Amino acid sequence: xxxxxxxxxxxxxxxxxxxxxxxxxxxxxxxxxxxxxxxxxxxxxxxxxxxxxxxxxxxxxxxxxxxxxxxxxxxxxxxxxxxxxxxxxxxxxxxxxxxxxxxxxxxxxxxxxxxxxxxxxxxxxxxxxxxxxxxxxxxxxxxxxxxxxxxxxxxxxxxxxxxxxxxxxxxxxxxxxxxxxxxxxxxxxxxxxxxxxxxxxx
Length: 202
What we know:
13 strands, five-stranded mixed sheet, single chain, 5 helices
């Protein structure tokens, strides 16, 4: 199976979708896109677009959309869902579950999710088997982390949430950090006396 991973350029595929033909790179444009093989939400207010892909045809996706909107009152599926009935695209995007198969013995799509940056490269991937639902709170948190890191030259610690302290990237000198973070930063007092662990808020 191809191993699309962090840093790889997403293939510039063109597929039919519920919103007409879509070429992935054009859809990404100059922003971030979450490319996923099952439904997701909560990203529009962050300026992040969604792009679904499924192994059914476009008409099936339109019918599925009606089911979802009826099952979840108030939910509107506004993002496009690309059709991949021959499953060739999910293989290129590393979205296949090798263990789960349908009644004809064909492999099912995994619950993969790639976050693609403006440079069309994968910034983060989640890979779940088809039998396991994603933790959407973690997808939102990780998206916030990526957007924050890209904007401010910082990294986020484990379990970070917006509003909490971030770590200034090691490649940023103290002089540059003073300009980038005029609100100040705190350097951890480590046994090594190396000042690389610097915390601030953005």
